User: Which sequence fits this backbone?
């Protein structure tokens, strides 16, 4: 469970272009953007972006050997190039799982490796629990069960002790009288009718997450966190999901049910100093899945672009491909 020495760390695979892309209509008003990369007849992998509310980007293609893998990426409902942008209508975890299955059938994939970090790990676990026969491996980073404990740590009291300067900026849009329930206060503004209040709340929400992603500091924050359209979709959808507990049957449901995935080969990559999704969840998942491989990266936070995290994820995808 130790990270690889820095001198022998692997890097990302070379940049590649998608060989196919398109939009998949749903039966309830959404059009899902998707793309395929790598080897047309290679081993299939579905890559799940974070958030909820994030989007795919070209770097996500580079964790897999393009001569072995057929990579499928898609923007979840309301995200990225999917339409309509920032929509909360018919936007739940279970709808996303339906989209993954519809996409699998559309592309003629029988089974695939499911790769996801942060919220992507949440969705990966939920999908695997719903369709275990369609999952031949799981590769997870920054495990997140979307429990009230995790949400309270990051959005109410916990991470604030480590980042008081960034936390002050997060508090700024919310009057002191409403700070006892920051999630509710943000949800009111992000789903309200005042565009100025919505934009201000979205910027503060997104900056808080961006400022805490990496041990390399705010300069490692992806540029997209500064884009108004991205920030609004990201914050609205994320707060929507978190306010509704991920739409799970009960708090802690993913961990309670995780033992059912014991037969699926699983790799877990976790930054030791991950503040966004602290290591306790990855540790608990490893306890539930004793055969899973857990790599703890001692010089990493939450970001997927930390050198040690890149190394562990590339090694995991190679291992899953049988290299």
Assistant:
């Amino acid at each position: 469970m130790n990270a690889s020495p820095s001198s022998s760390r692997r890097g990302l695979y070379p940049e590649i272009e998608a060989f196919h892309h398109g939009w998949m209509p749903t039966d309830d008003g959404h059009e899902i953007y998707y793309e395929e990369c790598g080897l047309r007849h290679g081993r299939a992998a579905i890559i799940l972006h974070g958030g909820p509310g994030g989007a795919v980007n070209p770097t996500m293609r580079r964790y897999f050997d393009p001569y072995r893998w057929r990579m499928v990426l898609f923007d979840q409902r309301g995200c990225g190039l999917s339409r309509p942008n920032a929509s909360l209508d018919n936007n739940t975890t279970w709808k996303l799982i339906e989209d993954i299955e519809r996409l699998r059938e559309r592309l003629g994939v029988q089974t695939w490796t499911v790769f996801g970090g942060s919220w992507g790990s949440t969705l990966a676990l939920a999908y695997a629990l719903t369709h275990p026969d369609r999952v031949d491996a799981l590769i997870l980073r920054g495990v997140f069960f979307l429990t009230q404990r995790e949400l309270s740590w990051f959005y109410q009291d916990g991470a604030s002790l480590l980042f008081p300067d960034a936390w002050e900026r997060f508090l700024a849009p919310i009057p002191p009288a409403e700070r006892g329930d920051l999630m509710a206060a943000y949800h009111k503004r992000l789903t309200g009718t005042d565009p100025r209040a919505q934009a201000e709340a979205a910027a503060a929400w997104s900056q808080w997450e961006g400022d805490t992603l990496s041990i390399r500091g705010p300069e490692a924050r992806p540029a997209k966190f500064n884009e108004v359209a991205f920030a609004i979709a990201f914050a609205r959808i994320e707060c929507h999901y978190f306010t509704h507990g991920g739409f799970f049957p009960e708090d802690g449901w993913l961990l309670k049910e995780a033992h059912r995935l014991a037969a699926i080969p699983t790799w877990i990559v976790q930054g030791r100093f991950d503040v966004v999704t602290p290591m306790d969840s990855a540790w608990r998942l490893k306890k539930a899945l004793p055969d899973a491989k857990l790599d703890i990266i001692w010089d990493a936070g939450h970001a997927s672009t930390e050198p040690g995290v890149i190394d562990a994820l590339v090694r995991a995808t190679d291992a899953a491909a049988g290299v």
In short: Residues 166 and 208 are 6 Å apart (CA to CA).
